[in-house]
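Changelog-linked ticket: cytidine-5'-diphosphate example.
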Amino acid sequence: DTPLVVVAIDGPAASGKSSTAHWVAERLGYRHVDSGALYRALTLLATQEAGAVEGWTEAVLLALAARVRLAPIPGGFEPLIDERPAGDGIRGAEVTRCVSKVAQMPGVRDWVNARVRTAAEGNAVVVDGRDIGTVVFPAAPLKIFLVADPWERARRRLVQRLNRRPTDDEIAEETERLVQRDAKDATQTVQAKDAILLDTTYLTQAEQVDRIVALARALERGWAPDGADEA
Ligand code: CDP
Ligand code: CDP
């Protein structure tokens, strides 16, 4: 069983992927699949049960992965650990610090990709991550690569987390963290040849959602982006 339609949204940390994917999916009546949430849920479980991050091996992670899955919820999917919602803990600082190491393990990547493909089976989906347009769904008819200036990404992430206006020092520190994580994720964060680059630095959330929805609707009417494979 293959997905009906895939809109792939990739890009670096805090470029707006998952919030944009959520709203695009809602507007189109598609389901949202957040691949990063699976890497994060597995990492959360590892922080709880696998000791210090230095000792994590692929075998240990894959054994824990048997206890993590994506479950359908209205409009999309949520990660479960031991059949319970993984919750906001997956967005915490400790998980964010350790997740790139987990995501380097080939067996873990295969596990996430299989879970994401299974979630998409038979559905129209908006899937966000790093390698959705290149590895997970290379035949997706619409691929978006979101980028934004690192300072602006850091500022947005802090507004989201603190719910207030961050200071310049806070933004500087968060920018450093984001840039370091981007470097660790660089191998898998690849813009597909047929992806559309969208720089959101000077766009509002609503504007970037509108643009992607407009592209998806054009596609539904039969248009194909330059260089995209024939459906
Ligand atoms: O939203 P943010 O960019 O902070 O993180 P995320 O999308 O939830 O992804 C968390 C981590 O999972 C990233 O830093 C990558 O290490 C990894 N990831 C990946 O390698 N491939 C994906 N398709 C999605 C996430
Ligand atoms: O999933 P990813 O880490 O790429 O980013 P996100 O969590 O969807 O977005 C980070 C924050 O930037 C969210 O609070 C968005 O609402 C906000 N934002 C945005 O994505 N685009 C804008 N043009 C303005 C704000």
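Closing comment: Example verified and attached. The chain has a mean pLDDT of 95. The pocket of cytidine-5'-diphosphate (ligand 2) is lined by residues 11, 13-20, 156-157, 160, 200, 203-205, 208 (CB under 6 Å).
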